[in-house]
Amino acid sequence: MRTALILAAGSGSKIWPYGEFRQKCALPVGNVPIVRRLALDLKKLGFERIVAVVGRYKQQVVGALADIEGVEFVEQREPEGAAPAVLTAFPNGFDDDVLVVYGDIVTAEENLRGLIDSFERSGAEAAALVQRLEGERPNDWICAKLSGEKLTGIEGHPRGGSHRLCGVYAFKPSAWRYVLRNPGLVTDVPVGGMPPPEAELAQSIGLMIDEGVEVLAVECREFLVDVDKPWHLLEANARLVDYLSRKLEGDEIAPGAEIHGSAEINGKVVLGRGSRIGPRVVVEGTLIAGENVEITNGAILRGTIMIGDGSRVRDYSLITGHTCVGKRCIVGHGAEMSGVMMDKVYLYHYCEMFGVIGTATDIGAATVCGTLRFDDGETVHTVKRRREIPPVGANAVYIGEFCRTGVNAIIMPGCKIGSYSVVGPGVILYEDLPSRTMILAKQELVRKEWGPERYGW
């Protein structure tokens, strides 16, 4: 198998506040665009030709992949679904076996290799990567029915199920006709189910099964996150950082990098060229730092932490958990962070943040987010008018790109802030803030006469 197809043309409407003016597949995970990480893994696996189907905000995908040898681009002009995207790339059929990967998947290359190896050994006409749900609700996904290693059916957003389809498929040339015959919506749904008119590739798999064609089911060996909603960015970064940490066998210190003698290191450290760990720094866990990173003056890093090129972490700040800090970020005096910072986010001093913070966002002094509700519960989120409780990051905050907060702003658990928005000083934000919106606190003042006569003079 030498040809792979990446589908990167979707609208990404569920991932607000991060998909309004960004192609979801080009959002960063582990400081690398999702689609680029996929393409690089495919190159490692020996794929000579990678076709990327682009559409909405196509240049963001082109920009992420243009320097990778063997990548070509095909534009899908109408967002009709995954099956038409495949037909756009291969209008006359598959010349050879093809691997089809949805471009918003964050996973380990072991999963892709496992699918390819099993497919080539089996002789099946198609194969699908599946993942055990493990606590996630089946009605959030298109699910797979299994009998051993065979796929026996698919069902869209069912009431029950053990595995979901991952959006990674292998096809022989003979399977192309089932893509062509896709009915334009998922008809394999529970009674009363209401599928949108979208040609999901899973339904082509359903057609094959209905006609007795063998479809192999290959279960994930490693982590996989389908980045569909904002909390999936939080989960994907955490899973990736953990995966990369587990792969490390020891410290990796590049030429020109240095660790000060007074630093306290209890774990594995990766330092890129020109990076420096300065005096009184504490590292407890795993640190993966890029190039020209400065971690100085008593900063504390406790957990599994990734820090992008050119960032500054300093002055007794605290980073915890599975956290990914973007490129050219600042985490300054007394700031606390857990989660995801995209590129050029500033936490200058005295703030406490947990969640996902979008590109070039400035967090004002003493901005804090609540993470523990008084009822000890999980926040209910609304995505496209559907209410749901995320399995990960329900009480995190999700701040869009190019935003600002004023001093002493308080963001309550689970709030989402749209891109190009401002939360003013002293605001207590209890609900989602739309994009392109400024919210300010209105102060009521009481004025009285006062003077020395009040003290008996």
Based on the model shown, name its key terms.
Spore Coat Polysaccharide Biosynthesis Protein SpsA, Chain A, 457 residues, alpha/beta, UDP N-Acetylglucosamine Acyltransferase, domain 1, 7 helices, 33% strand, nine-stranded parallel β-sheet, 2 domains, nine-stranded mixed β-sheet
Tell me about this structure.
By secondary structure, the chain is of the alpha/beta class. The protein has 2 domains: about 5-230, Spore Coat Polysaccharide Biosynthesis Protein SpsA, Chain A, CATH 3.90.550; about 245-440, UDP N-Acetylglucosamine Acyltransferase, domain 1, CATH 2.160.10.10. The chain is about 15% helix and about 35% strand. The chain contains 7 helices and 37 strands. Strands 1, 4, 5, 6, 8, 9, 10, 11 and 12 form a 9-stranded mixed β-sheet that branches. It has a 9-stranded parallel β-sheet with strand order 14-16-18-20-22-24-26-31-34. The termini are far apart.
